[in-house]
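Hi R.,

Here's the chain you asked about this morning:
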Amino acid sequence: MIRLVKFIISGSVQGVGFRFFTYQKAIKIGLVGYVKNLDNGDVEIVVQGSSHQISSMTQWLNQGGPRSANIVKINIYELSSKENLTSFNVRY
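And the predicted structure, written out as tokens:
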């Protein structure tokens, strides 16, 4: 089953290469979607993939994500699969 999930990551997650490392991890796992900085200092990650792939990303984030980041809070939202995502991108 393909799932679409949004993560909102809070903490010291901007200006530390978070988007770059998240992009690398998503590509390695085989996810499609995007990562982008939000105006409030958080990072938004939207990923689409199998439950196993989503679990791999969730586990990586729960373990702290990139070493340069300091994740304080992770909010996870299950979305209805309406986006036609074909690759993983960094959005600006």
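The beta strands are 2-12, 32-37, 43-50, 70-79, 88-91.

Let me know if you need anything else.
M.
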